[in-house]
Specification:
This protein has 810 residues and is of the alpha/beta class. The protein folds into four domains: 247 residues, 3-Layer(aba) Sandwich (Rossmann fold), CATH 3.40.50; 86 residues, formyl-coa transferase, domain 3 (2-Layer Sandwich); 243 residues, Glycerate kinase, MOFRL-like N-terminal domain (Rossmann fold, 3-Layer(aba) Sandwich); 155 residues, glycerate kinase, domain 1, CATH 3.40.1480.10. Helix content is 37%, strand content 17%. It is built from 29 helices and 26 strands. A six-stranded parallel β-sheet has the order 5-2-1-6-7-8, sandwiched between helices. It has a six-stranded parallel β-sheet with strand order 17-16-15-18-19-20, sandwiched between helices. It has a six-stranded mixed β-sheet with strand order 21-22-26-23-24-25, sandwiched between helices. Helix 16 links the parallel strand 15 and strand 16. Helix 20 crosses helix 22. The radius of gyration is 32 Å and the shape is elongated.
């Protein structure tokens, strides 16, 4: 499992700090789009060359994509801004102010994509008197004071071999803070600007020197101090044949063992008495024997001593091989391979080490033309599919969707109620925008707001694990898809809140997919247990969502417009995120605020069609639960996100990657395996005949398939079942890969959003002795993909616009 799968990073950085940071993110599964100037970044031309480009460029950019763009050209910049809208992270390494002058500064791009984590890596930071100074690693560690602690003698100064500030002060802090920024985004829904100053981040390399200076006012000079060359216990010693012995015998037991091994006399072992005298004597003893002698001696003594190895010796060290440091491979355009650069990502989070990956070739147009903005197909099929899925998810989230859609402020209270898998994130975004509009008079319809007015308050209910931090709106979690007592209690409280609203109040209703199960308040004469039993039976039956919601309305005291009826004295505005085919507001969450009411006779007919038994007393209660077919004058409805919007966003991302999208529909329904058969036929036609689209293309579709479970059944999920059926139907057809996932992050009742396949999935299963057809027959698709490490796991996405499917034909 690669934890950053689905994360898209725009990388404007060059040379070492930024490229190494994004390489680490790439190795953990992120999609990196490297934006280069015409002709490529300078590192491409650094020696030694390896194929078309410099070897160091290849090492630092393995597995990335390349996009050539002139950032001073308006057309190219517009294409970049389109990518910004879909990105999760942006990394840049210019001097402060450069990105702002190009129209790509944080404030500008955050207005387009509020969820963007924007990382700026500079030598001295975005503020301070040195912010505009040029520098390299040696300048940064010099300005930080680190170089003054150990630079050798003035006659023979030593230049540090490792780029401490570039890597330890730039690359690693960038990765850490990007990950923290992404984690914070999960809680707040918003991105941030990360100011990574390489000089600042050198200070953690000097804890001992800083402790001595701060606490005792003893500031170490060059070569002084325990770890800077002033102690015989932490030192380099020359052997008789010119090799070096590295000694780190700091602790008493290690020091005593070291002294005994070299034969140091007793009068010199207390190095506190005369450190320099002990140092001279140890040098004499070590210099008396060649390195081979000391290798044998210290192989038997545990005292933190080792002979310095040359880099070529280290590469051949059996320990390096045992650790698999060089197992990952890098391939150039000619097919030659060398080991990839080892990076600090554990093997469990990295891609398959058996598959060589390339550095990107320049994605430029023909000579003399502008860069097209399309990213060449250097990325793996999996990376492309995950990027499309993430683009769909980004378009479905509520962030930025309330702007310009806020109602006028009431004289009285602003009551927020809601339910669904996106209810918590909708509540978080609404209260943030409502608060800003209250302070600054922005965000209401027409762009004109009224300062002041009521703060919002209220209650929303969401699925367990789908909560979000809010300030004033309470978030309750409950069970889905089978309702529980927590959902019933929350529904009763929400109905009471709506009923409490008066003529001067405003009721904001936030509804999204999942509300039907979460907003469960049984009608009189119907118990929660009876409602749960009928809900389970419907889930097993394979009934489409529209029919399920017709039944749910007939069982409910809150759905079918009854919530709006309770709030009839107040002004009511409903915001919707659609998870249903056709985006019918009356079906989303079973329409708690939409007129139309329940149709008990239609509900009973549906239950009869699926052979679901209904007790006589439940049937009588349903027939008595007809809701009045009333209208709600002045009630507003706003659709914030739909399946079509998500597919459109994925299509735009595909175009930027040079892949033609074909949207087959946002409302496909039917048995998962039957839908798979139809879509497999279309994919085959594209692959073999170029109809109805030419390769490379991606077939996009949404909607909600169903799975009718026969027998006991295994661990499924409709998207996993669709993909397994698709794989079986395609039979290993080359150049075809696919992803399917539930946009709420949960496929059925499992912990995955979905899965992905390529043309090698059946062969991989065969190697493991796994029979795909047998797993499909027993509805055990989750277990099939889990065994092959092909699940797509996003965690709760805090939105829901139904299923997402993409079939890539190269």
């Amino acid at each position: 499992m690669q934890p950053l799968a689905g994360i898209t990073v725009l990388d404007f950085s060059t040379l070492l700090p930024g490229p190494l940071a994004t390489l680490i993110l790439a190795e953990a599964g992120a999609r990196i789009i490297k934006v280069e100037k015409p002709g490529g970044e300078d590192m491409r031309h650094y020696p030694p060359r390896w194929g078309q480009d410099g070897a160091m460029f290849a090492l630092l950019n393995r597995g990335k994509e390349s996009l050539v763009a002139d950032l001073k050209n308006e057309a190219d910049r517009a294409r970049i801004l389109d990518l910004v809208r879909q990105a999760d992270v942006l990394v840049e390494q210019f001097r402060p102010g450069v990105m702002e002058r190009l129209g790509l500064g944080y404030d500008a791009v955050a207005a387009l994509n509020p969820r963007l984590v924007y990382c700026s890596i500079t030598g001295y930071g975005q503020s301070g008197p040195k912010r505009d100074r040029a520098g390299h690693d040696i300048n940064y560690i010099g300005d930080a004071g680190l170089l003054s602690l150990s630079f050798g003698s003035p006659q023979a100064p030593v230049v540090p071999p490792g780029l401490i500030a570039d890597i330890g002060g730039g690359s690693y802090p960038a990765v850490m803070n990007i990950l923290m920024g992404l984690r914070a985004r999960e809680a707040t829904g918003r991105g941030c600007h990360l100011d990574i100053a390489m000089t600042d981040n050198v200070f953690p390399f000097m804890p001992l020197a800083l402790a001595s200076g701060f606490a005792a006012d003893r500031w170490p000079a060059n070569g002084e101090g325990l770890l800077m060359g002033g102690s015989p216990r932490y030192q380099l010693y020359a052997t008789a044949d010119g090799k070096m012995l590295a000694v780190g015998a700091l602790e008493p037991q290690f020091w005593e063992a070291f002294c005994g091994a070299i034969g140091l006399e007793a009068e010199w072992r207390d190095d506190r008495r005369d450190p320099q005298g002990t140092l001279r004597r140890v040098r004499q003893l070590v210099a008396a024997h060649p390195s081979g002698h000391w290798r044998e001696v210290f192989a038997k003594v545990d005292c933190c001593c080792s002979l310095l190895q040359e880099l070529r010796e280290t590469i051949a060290d059996p320990h390096v091989a045992a650790r698999g440091l060089l197992a990952h491979r890098l391939e150039n355009e000619a097919g030659a391979e060398i080991p990839a650069l080892p990076v600090p990502v554990v093997q469990a989070f990295r891609a398959d080490r058996q598959a060589p990956r390339k550095a990107p070739t320049l994605a430029a147009s023909q000579a003399g033309e502008r860069a097209s903005g399309s990213v060449q197909a250097e990325a793996s099929d999996k990376a492309i599919l995950l990027a499309l899925f993430e683009a769909a998810l980004a378009a479905a989230r509520p962030e930025g969707q309330f702007t310009g859609r806020l109602p006028a402020r009431p004289k009285g209270r602003t009551i927020v109620i809601g339910a669904g898998k996106a209810a918590a994130s909708m509540a978080r975004e609404f209260e943030a925008v409502w608060g800003k509009a209250r302070e600054g008079g922005t965000g209401t319809k027409g762009g004109k707001g009224t300062k002041g007015g009521s703060e919002c308050e209220g209650l929303v209910v969401t699925r367990y694990g789908h909560g979000a931090k809010t300030r004033r709106i309470e978030v309750v979690e409950a069970a889905h898809p089978v309702p529980d007592e927590a959902g019933a209690k929350a529904a009763a409280r929400i109905l009471a809140l709506a009923a409490s609203a008066g003529p001067d109040d405003l009721v904001i209703c936030l509804m999204s997919g999942g509300a039907s199960a979460l907003l469960t308040l049984p009608a009189p004469g119907i118990t929660l247990e009876a409602k749960q039993a009928l809900n389970r039976a419907l889930l097993r039956s394979g009934a489409p969502i529209g029919e399920m919601n017709t039944v749910r309305k007939a069982l409910s005291a809150i759905k079918g417009g009854r919530l709006a009826a309770a709030a009839k004295r107040a002004r009511c505005v409903t915001y919707l995120i659609s998870d249903v085919p056709g985006d019918d507001p009356a079906i989303i969450g079973s329409g708690p605020t939409v007129p139309g009411g329940a149709d008990p006779k239609a509900a009973l007919a549906i239950l009869k069609r699926y052979a679901i038994e209904v007790a006589p007393e439940i049937e009588a209660a349903m027939l008595a639960n007809s809701a009045p077919n009333q209208t709600f004058p002045g009630h507003e409805l706003h659709m914030l996100a739909t399946p079509k919007m998500a597919l459109d966003a994925a299509a735009a991302t595909a175009r930027h990657m040079g892949i033609a999208p074909l949207i087959l529909g946002d409302a496909l329904e039917g048995e998962a395996r039957e839908v798979a058969t139809v879509l497999a036929g279309i994919a085959e036609s594209v692959a073999r005949h170029g109809e109805p689209a030419r390769r490379p293309c991606v077939l996009l579709s949404g909607g909600e398939t169903t799975v009718t479970v026969t027998g006991r059944g295994g661990r499924g999920g409709r998207n996993a079942e669709f993909l397994l059926a698709l794989a079986v139907r395609l039979g290993g057809l080359t150049r075809v890969s696919a992803i399917a996932g539930d946009t709420d992050g949960i496929d059925g009742t499992e912990d995955n959003a979905g899965a992905w396949i390529d043309s090698g999935v059946l062969a991989q299963a065969g190697e493991k002795g796994i029979d795909a057809a047998a797993y499909l027959a027993r509805h055990d698709a989750y277990s099939f993909f889990a065994a092959l490490d092909r699940l797509v796991v996003t965690g709760p996405t805090l939105t829901n616009v139904n299923d997402f499917r993409a079939i890539l034909v190269r």
